[in-house]
Amino acid sequence: MRPDRDKSRAVIVGAARYRRGPDLPPGIPAVADLPAVAANVAAMRRLVTDREHWDLPPEHCTVLLDPQHPQEVYDALARAAHEATDGLLFYYAGHGILAPRDGELYLALADADYTRYYNGVRFDDVRWILKNSVGVQSKVVVLDCCYAGRALSGAMSTGADIGARIRIDGTYLMTATAENVLAMSPEGDELTAFTGELLRCIDGGVPDHVEYLTVDRLFYLTRSALAARLLPLPQQREDNGGAAIVLARNRYHDLERGRAVAGVPELVPPGLRGALDAAPALLVETLGELRAAGRDEAVAGVLRATGALRTEQGVAAVVEHLQHRGRPGDAALVIAAAADRRPDSLLTLVETFRETGQPARVAELLTAVARGTTGTLTALVTRLHEAGAEADAAALRDAAVDARIGRPQTMIALVGGLLGAGLPDAVAAVIARAAARSAAPDTLALADALREAGQEPAALQLYATVTDLVLRRPIADVVAVAAAMSATGRDRDAEALIGRVAAAHPDPAGLGRVLQALWSMDVAVDDVGLVRHLADGPLADLVVALHGDRPATQARRLLLAVLAERPAASTAGMAVVLRRAGLPVEANRLIDAAVARPAAHSATLARLLGDAGDEHGVRRLVERAAGSAPETVAAFLEELEPAQHRFVWPVLGRAGAGRALAVAGRLAGARGDLMLAVLRCVAVAAAREEIGAALAAGGPIAAEVVLGLAALRHPGADRALEQVTGALTVPGPAADAALTGALGDPAHAVAVLLRVSTPESVRALCRTAAARDDLVPVVDLLRRPPGAGAHADVLVAQLRARLTDHRIFPVAAALHRHGRVGDAAALLAGRVADVPPGGPDPVALALAELFGRAAAAVRWSRWRIRRPGQPPAFAGLEPGEPVLHLVDGSALDRGWLLAFTATRVLYARTRPQPYRPWIPYTDLDRVTFTEAGPQTVAVRDDDGSVDSWTVGRGGPPAERVVALLRAVQETVAPVLDLHRRLSVDGRPG
Predict the structure, then answer these.
(1) With a threshold of 0.85, does the pTM exceed it?
(2) Taking the CB of residue 489, how many other CB atoms lie within 10 A of it?
(3) First to last CA, the chain
(4) CATH 2.30.29 fits domain 842-981
(5) Which tens digit of pLDDT belongs to each residue from 412-440?
(6) Which of 454, 484, 422 is nearest to 172 (CA)?
């Protein structure tokens, strides 16, 4: 339905005359005048005001011929867009100039040229006005431009590119893109080529039953007409159903009626008009007579007139008669002439052939129609679909495709006709058949033609079948196809094509061109994946080259994404290359991004930058890492080279006490040295109040921080101690740090710890100390601070309650040797009655505990365990060597003894002959005791030697003795181990 005349508006602009600028640079051509444009403007005005077409009132059609200023055009278009609520047409004829900087289109006015393009109408402004005219139902833009300046701008390469560049949301766009003035306005033509053919197509109409012509239908008619004249082809872009907008009334049928009446005498040879009405048999006789008389041209004329003018039944009857009389050639000539009939008549003829039993003639007729005009063909396809003759419609469609193989312009006319007839399924079938039957170059040409006609989906379907040929084109053209694929939802095809073009150009220069094209067309693709395979060197070359052509953001994003997957060495090398290439800001961005990587990566990068002599890079990296979250800073410090810590301290010092304390807390325990270094950064001036406030929210890390501040004698320590005295929960790492001296003087640290800790934390400190090997200095520390003896008593009590025998005896001995006799006695209270003046022997104490239990267990036996009053004379002891415990089996058959001294165990046998082996306690861990028989113990050394100890008949079984010896092993070994680890002062030795 055509737009409402009262609710529609048109703005028709033409620039026919141009003034040459006075300072036009040499080599830059002047903008030529276009006299035909004035005729265009007048003709377009007549079209839109014609009562048969839009029928606009003259006041609703604004005509601007040779306007002097762009503002005139903007005002007229804005006013029309505001007033219109149904249809809005904007038409421009003149020169189109592409800005050399960015390829932006300007519609030239009188004072514009290729250097002063800005004196023209900026098409983006036209786009904005139309896009924002939301109250208009139908918007049509027709541009009839000469792009003679395109070669100068270098911005676009094809008309399809221009069509894509200037498309407008919600608007139908038809544009002509002639390369020069001659192509735009051929010599002798009153109108420009494009506008002239458009108006001729409107005047001629289409052989269809539709009342109105849509802009889409007119586009294909115009395109076919221009192609036939070898003139530049137009493009179209449509959005939101814009192709269905009506521009003119279909005048075909009115004209056809006049042509039919006038054409009868022209078709029939002179004197043979009556043959058209003769019966088939008489007609055949007449033809025979004419042929016999040598009048072959008259025969052909009668046959053609029969096909064109006789009724459908008459045609079918004549054809059938000719076939029966053996004249198939004459029948074919009739059918060929019938193929030019109107679509309705052709449909009737198809039905008549079938009804008269001539299916073969149907195929011949459809083939003949398929070779004819696109308008008749598409109209007949429509009629066949409407009549339910799907098989005939498909046959006609296939024959049309086969007749157009190798001729992409005629194929696109077929596609356009079917689209205009509203047959998208037929279009899909045509494209599929064309792709299957055409040679690859023809398929590519058809795809190009479809794309130029604005049929992107169909074109892309064909491009996907000939990607090998597409890839032979310039990179920018290949990427343009991929961009179109992506824009129409064919993402997989787009990715595959881009992947192949990148693979075909793997070097940095080629990949750079691919990326530039992708970015300029805003193609959403994994561009990082295209360069991921490049080694660091080629990647650096690529990035440097990209920075020379594009804004830094794209190249930077690409590089950061690739380096995020590579080791620190890649980032370090790239930063050095970028600085040498004069891109220090980009080098800085690499370093900034590395801060977000794991601490080990950042620290390694700092070291590598230092090795490369990039002092600026090291400083930047370290300073930014120092500004990260406290836990990140702590981890970074642990990984960083000590020599590079110097860059961190000023940052932490400026950050304030709260931040430094938070970082210090994360370092407590594991790296007390670093924690102290961080605490030194806390500004003295802000120490007291700021430290107090920070510690109040410090949580479990506050203990280490307090101790560190105290160890450093920091001015803020007193405030911190006042705030947390007796109320701080101290974790284990803090206690360890204080006890080991990691926080400075242990005595001072422990004193602070005892001052700030809660009672439970004090007990926890004692438990922590009890688990340490250096208990002796711990106790000593607890005795040293004034008034701290009570804490030492608590510790000793905890030790007495918690230590096992194998720990308590060596610790007591060490305390005694260290001069803490009272603590040693308190530790042994309840276990040992009297501590010898020389101090307790840990082995003797452990054996006493063991043999006290063992003696009670064998009291009933004929052998006994006792502490001898004097050593047995036969035991083989050294002079003065005391026997601590004795297993006495001398009363048994084959009497024997086991003597345990302070340093060894001895076995002595008196019968049948003396035998006295012995084993030092220090070697017990190398010996295995097992039963070799009921009364024999096997003593196996780890060197493989075996000794046998007989325990006599009538005594305990060997298993009892083996159990006792194993108990001695288990008791003495850990005691000796700890005893060895405690030096005279009790520290681990």
Answers:
(1) no
(2) 11
(3) 105
(4) yes
(5) 778 877 877 778 888 888 888 988 888 88
(6) 454
